[in-house]
Structures are given as structure tokens and as C-alpha cells.
Design goal:
- The chain has three domains: 121 residues, Acetylcholine Binding Protein, Chain: A; 97 residues, Methane Monooxygenase Hydroxylase, Chain G, domain 1, CATH 1.20.58; 89 residues, no CATH class.
- It is 59% helix and 12% strand.
- The chain is rod-shaped, with a radius of gyration of 46 Å.
- This is 5-hydroxytryptamine receptor 3A-like.
Amino acid sequence: MPDLTIEERTDKDKETKSPYLLIHWYGGVEYTNEQVVTTACRMRVYKFPFDVQRCNISFKSVMHSDNEIELIYNKNNKSMTTLTRSMMWTQYEWTFENLAATNKSSIMYPHQTVIIYTITMRRRSVLYIANFISPVLFFLVLDLASFLIPDAGGEKLSFKVTVLLAVTVLQLILNDILPSTSKKVPLIAIYCIGTFTLMLLSLLETIVMMYLIEKDSAAHHNETDEEQNLSVNCGDKWCKANFCVRGIKSSDCASVCDESADETQSVTEKRSSDKLTEVSLGLEQVSDELREIGKTISLLSSNKKEEKFGYWARMVKKINRVYFIFYVTAVTVFLSVLISLWTS
């Protein structure tokens, strides 16, 4: 029998060879031997799970040259594809696409012809879309929707951390299902890494926003405490001065008012009543003016404090708005480029 072999074969011939020969009336001899062969094929998983693989099965003689054995093959690729598709019962995760046959002759001695059958297969990507690609996309949409959660509480931060951990678990699943025979980084790995990076940036943005809100709240509490301390220390003095100028006597201002009464008596003994009246009127006008100035200063200081208190809150709203626009734009561009590379 001819010493035919398959170049890509990786296992030994364990099949029992058929002992039967078919001899035709014109002298031709036909021998048929069915085999289950395991061959090596380089996988190109750059577009996994939308990849198309082409594997070769090469037949040649081990020792004989073309002068001793002539290898003939069917050149009608369409008929071979139809026949092969009709004979295939199960295809598992692969779909048979095409079968083509070519020949190649060696230049060096001994001159031999090699028959090469190229099998084209396409991977079934439905299960990978349903079990991996879609969940990662859903988590990305959830992270995008988390911008509707207020930054004041810790619910937004915990939600983003949970989503990020879920994507990390899916990355571990990808490590198990992805073949490691490609020189390039597969697009599905870029898809997972890019999604993880976007979610991580979103998480960092949330942490910074919560820090700014807490900084604003802490500043407000400090100002409130200072105002309370000042009111406790200076309230009595302001009350005494105010009541004494108006001539109102109370238990808190008794001593101060007595002293002013003594001074008034001493003044009345030295000066005339007309001059005393003018002085009292002038003091009342000065006290009114000082009171109006105090009200204006207190109003301005309160407005400044309110503006200072709301500064970081307004900045958080602006930063959230700008980052949301950036986040949506980045997700759209990233997914568009990835889909175009997958379908090209």
C-alpha cells in the first residue's frame, strides 16, 4: 500500500486498517480506510468569539517521489463542500463553512506533491454573547445609571464597588474560556479591560465627589460652632450696651445703668440742661447708625458664609455633569470602535 501520511497529525495511527480491497474489471484496485485523526491547527483568536478558523490537512508520500506515486485530488471545491456538509452530523461550537483543495510541489529532491485540504470553520458566538458579552454590557449600563444616585450618602459608592467586583468575576470566567494561542490581545479581552477601566474611573470620581461634599459639610459645622461661641461670649456685652444707650433698665444691665446715671447727675451739675439734651440726642443718633452698620455687616458676613458653604456643592454638580458627558462619549466611542473591529 502507498505510504501516505498527514503532516499536521499529532497522534499515532490507532485505527485498525481495513483488510479489504476492491478490484475493478479494468484492473483498477480501490482501497478505503476510514480514520479519526487529531491534527494541529494554529488558532487566531483575535476576534473571539466572532473568529473564523482555517485549518490545513496535508497529504503526501513519505518516501516516494512524483515519478513513483501521482497524487490526484478533486478540483471542484463546491462539490466537496456540499459532500462534506452532508456527511457531518455534529459540529458542536463550530459551523462548517468551506472546504478547498490545492497542491504544492517541493523543489528539492525528491520531488513530491503535497495535497492540501483547507477547512474553514466559524465559531458559534451566540452562547458567548448571552453568557459573557451581554452581562458585561449590562453592568456598564448599571454603572452609567448610578449617576442618578445622590453623592451625599454612601449608597452610590457601595453600588459602584459591587458592580466592579461583578465585572472582576466575569474576567476570571474569561480567563478559563479564552484560548491562549494568539500573538495579539483578543478584542474580547480589550472589551473587558476597557469596561473595567471606565468603571474604575467612575468609582474614583465618586470618591472625590464624596470627599468634596464632606469637606463642605465640615466647613459649615466649624463656622456654626464658632458663631455659637462668639454669641455666648459677647451676647451679654452687646445687650448691656444696647439697653443702656436707650435708657432701659433690666437685671442684666443694672450696674452699668447705675454708673451712667451717676455720670449724668455729675454732668447736670456742671452743665446746662440744653447741652445735656443735645448730647443725648447725638448719642441716640450714633447708636442708631452703629446699629444699622452692624446689621449690614452681619448680613454681608452671612451671605459670604452661605456662598462659602455652597461652593463645593456647586462644584460637585458641575463636575458630575461634565464627567457624565465624558463618560457617555467614551463608552459610545469605545463600543463603536470595538464593534467595527469585530465585524471587519
